[in-house]
Specification:
- With 135 residues, the chain is mainly α.
- The chain has 2 domains: 1-35, no CATH class; 39-134, Fumarase/aspartase (N-terminal domain) (Fumarase C, Chain B, domain 1, Orthogonal Bundle), CATH 1.10.275.10.
- The chain is built from 4 helices and 5 strands.
- Helix 2 (46-61) runs antiparallel to helix 3.
- The termini are far apart.
- The model is unreliable at 128-135 (pLDDT under 50).
């Protein structure tokens, strides 16, 4: 696995010193998304969420984020296919955008809610419709 890279092949937070094996990484990444997939309140508009994904792609293309090419391709696929994750406006104080981007990532892992061009896509329950003034 090479040198330890925080969050790429090690844990995060209190698990930062744990070096993951290749087999551990899939489970770790899935658990990380589940742990940070939270939000409350009304949903952001589809346009705002699409812009947030585009900004994340642009940031990753700078080459300093440590994310994989596959993640960038997955974000691009959301935009190209018109799939917009349902992202609630409020995350957690002090967590920057981790809760908000966790809601985006949850769609990529099949656990989150999203809107397609015409309808709501969800693995478990109906999506709350964004407020009409946000669309």
């Amino acid at each position: 696995m090479g040198l330890p890279v925080y969050g790429a092949n090690t844990g995060v937070g209190s698990m930062k010193d744990r070096l993951w094996t290749v087999d551990d990484l899939v489970e770790f990444n899935t658990a990380l998304v589940k742990a940070h997939h939270f939000g409350t309140g009304p949903l952001f508009s589809k346009a705002i969420v699409r812009k947030a994904i585009a900004i994340r792609i642009n940031t990753a293309l700078g080459g300093h984020t440590g994310c994989s090419v596959d993640l960038v391709k997955a974000f691009l696929a959301l935009l190209e296919r018109g799939v917009v994750p349902a992202v609630h406006r409020h995350g957690s104080i002090g967590c920057a955008d981790i809760g908000l981007m966790g809601q985006v990532a949850s769609v990529l892992t099949g656990t989150g809610q999203a809107f397609s061009r015409a309808s709501c896509l969800t693995p478990t329950k109906p999506c709350a419709a964004p407020a009409s003034n946000l669309l």
